[in-house]
Amino acid sequence: MMEKNHNVSRRQFLTYALLGTGGFMAAGLIMPMVRFGVDPILQADAEEDMIDVVSVDELTDVPQAFDMEYEQDHGWHVEQVQETVWIYLDGDEVVALSPVCTHLGCTVNWGTDPDNPEQFFCPCHFGRFERDGTNIPGTPPTEPLHRYDHEVRDGRVLLGNPSPQV
Questions:
Q1: Is the pLDDT of residue 37 over 50?
Q2: pTM of this prediction?
Q3: Pairing mode, if any, of strands 51-55 and 156-163?
Q4: Coiled-coil regions in this chain (predicted)?
Q5: Residue 95 contacts by C-beta under 8 Å, 6 or more apart in sequence?
Q6: Number of domains in the chain
């Protein structure tokens, strides 16, 4: 068989060398960005995200404020965060509501409006919510209070993240 003579010119060699080097450098720049975007998706976030807040025995059918503490990792530092949550029993079901008004983010309280003692009330803009967190028509909030994902484990209420009720 006859072997072909494959000569590479100096121009072709430099072209291949520059393309290879450029590709290697581009991969070195792009891979950290891809990892940054994909890594949060690959992180497991189920049970360890639930925060133990209160015993079920302490709950009543009247909403009560409970504090929950957790560490929040900002990437460059870890911060200790304390939040309040409204928790009550609706029959046998545990209901956990965020105290953040859905109008402008003020804090709502249970039973502080003398005219409506059985509602959540935002004193800043006079927003009102029913016991289950539903916003009252004609008041500033346009959506219900957010509900926390929760579990009852070994007689304790564990809370996850709040999510809209809409």
A1: yes
A2: 0.64
A3: antiparallel
A4: none
A5: 63, 87, 88, 89, 132, 133, 147
A6: 2
